[in-house]
Amino acid sequence: MNRWFALIPIAALAALGVFLMVQLNTMSGAPGEGREYKPDALVGQPIPETVLPILQGDVETNQRLDLKTAGVGKPMIVNLFASWCAPCRLEHPQLMKLKAQGINVIGVAYKDDPVATRAFLDELGDPYALVLVDREGRAGLDLGVSGVPESFAVDAYGTIVAKSSGPVLTDADLQKLVDALKAPVR
């Protein structure tokens, strides 16, 4: 009888683990599955003119740039990421593919220390044409992000044409963002 009592905590932990996994899969979908470009209040709107310092090496500079002019009249992907973000590591190879395709990717280091950001990029490769430092999360608030990573496809006119909440994990996810950049202007 005592043996059965010893198994109760183990069974409870296993049940809790299964419950949490089901909840996580329901909320975010399994990797690559059910990933949609969720409607967002800013899709179809100009990207906010949030002014942030530029990362140079492992320090934020006094030079500032706003998100709207970061792409300099070219279509771009704005990607909010952080060195402490595990899904950002999973997404990183897809961002490197964007760089290889010649697509302008602007990184926003969200609530991250510049030294940690540089170490992250040195370790995994730097897919960004430019990295802006958002220590306080101001750009995240202006863009309405729920967490990192999140990516925004922005056309040459500075209009947000698509949003990806969560990591871009598959080639199909990546292609949706690229296709949104190529869509004709309405």
What does this protein look like?
By secondary structure, the protein is of the alpha/beta class. The chain has six helices and seven strands. A hairpin with a 2-residue loop joins β1 and β2. The radius of gyration is 19 Å and the shape is globular. About 35% of the residues are buried. Mean pLDDT is about 80; it is low at about 25-40.
Q: Order of strands side by side in the largest beta sheet?
A: 5-4-3-6-7
Radius of gyration: 19 Å
Largest sheet: 5 strands, mixed
Contiguous uncertain segments of 5+ residues = 25-39
Please provide the count of β strands. 7
Quaternary structure type: single chain
Q: Any idea what the shape is?
A: globular
> What proportion of the residues form beta strands (DSSP E)?
15-25%
The computed structural class is alpha/beta
Helix content: 40-55%
- Mean pLDDT rating: 82
User: What is the count of DSSP helices, taking H or I runs of 4+ residues?
Assistant: 6
Give a summary of the structure in a few sentences.
The chain is an alpha/beta fold.
Features:
186 residues, alpha/beta, 23% strand, 6 helices, globular, 40% helix
How are the secondary structure elements laid out?
Layout: H1 2-28, E1 51-56, E2 59-66, H2 67-70, E3 76-81, H3 86-100, E4 104-110, H4 114-124, E5 130-134, H5 138-143, E6 150-154, E7 160-165, H6 171-182
Parallel strand pairs: 3-4, 4-5
Antiparallel strand pairs: 1-2, 3-6, 6-7
